[in-house]
Each structure stands twice: as structure tokens, then as C-alpha cells.
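INFO batch 0412 | record 1 of 1 | parsing
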Amino acid sequence: MSATLYEALGGLRHRHGGGLVHEHPHDGPHSHAQAHSHRHSHGLVDDSIKRSRSGLRAVLASLAVLGVAAALQALIFVLSGSVALLADLIHNAGDALTAVPLGAAFLLRSERAERTAGLFVVAAIFVSACVAGIEAIARLIHPDAPSHLWALALAGAIGYAGNLVAARVRLGAGRRLDSPALIADGHHARADAYVSLAVIASAAVVAVGLPIADPLIGLAITVVILRITWQSWRTVRGHEHAH
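INFO prediction complete | emitting C-alpha cells
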């Protein structure tokens, strides 16, 4: 879904929204940007990114990657009809929408424009999540196993790879620019890659004869997106009240 839907694995912990925090254990020396918790919020842009054209290029490049991944997933969704894939492509497209407040902040240099764009992102993510949730519930009521399972697994791999590339771009730029926000976004994208792996799991479980797994995984991803929507709304509203 915003510089924006997760609990990751191992030592990774992050919370989305106004108090979004990423914590990662470090061994050995690390930079100041890595030495503390990294803050990031969907729909609003950190000052360290707005001040830097290099940061802007990094974010736009990573979002372009996510946009391409979501577009490819959309094509495969038309073939497969997988609800789990629908939820994941909405998830990745929602992250791509974070370019809207970023562009507003950088081009207009207006906090009000940034907040308005942030509200747009939150609304778009919410509507998309509702669509995914309704489709998943409908599929539970009227079962219809997805087809083209190899293509479905490929779509999950595309989402996984796209998020890993986005993570590498953001982390590299964040460390060069000493930007905690970009570093946090990089860890967020890396965590999102594991959500895309759920699509591959859906294809595998359907292949062994359990088609109900597809809408159930779709619902699980939808819940993650809705959680992001709520926390992003709190972030945007909190900034409005602060100003």
C-alpha cells in the first residue's frame, strides 16, 4: 500500500503508523542511522528524504520496481483468479502509491499538500483492502479454485523479488544519506517480501488439493493491509493535529 502492509521474521520487529518502529540487532560497528530505532510512516514523508534529490531518486526507483511487480501480478491474477494474489498485488500497489505524498512534498514544498496526498493514499489502501476482503469472503462462500498454478507461484516470486530489490535500493541510499526513514523503508520492503511468499504457499497448497487455502491466505493478507490503513490514518491525523 505509503513511504508506506507486518511482522517479519527473526530479529525484525516493526510497527506501522505514527509510532512505527523497526528494531534490528546489530553485530559490530554501525552508523548513527542504524544505531537507533528507525521511524517510518505511510503517507507522510520524512524531512531527510525531502531535502535530498538522491533520496527522492532512490524512493522513486524502488517504487517503480514495486509498480512493475504489481502490474505483472495483475496480469497473472486475470489468468489465475487467485484471491491471495489479488491481496498481495493490492499490497504492493499500495506501497507504490507512497510516491504521491512524496511527489507532493518535494514538488510543492507544502506540508498541507503532503497531508492531503497522505489522506488519499490511506483512502486508496482502505478501498483496495475492502475489495480484496470481499473477494476472499465471496470465494469462501462460493469456492472456485484458482487456475494456472505455476503462473500463480511465479506471481508470488515476482512480488518477493520486487520487494527485495526495493529493499536493497532503499537501504543503500538510506545508509549513504544517513536517513533513518529510508533505512526503515528498506527493512519494511524486506519484510513485505515474506508476504509475497504466501502467494507461492497458496499455489502449493491448492496444488495438493486444498483450494480453500487461497481465500484464507487472501483474508490474512487483507487483515495486514487493514492494519496498515488504520495506523497510517492515525499518522496522518496526528500530523494534522500537530500543525
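INFO post-check: The two ends are 25 Å apart (CA to CA).
INFO record closed
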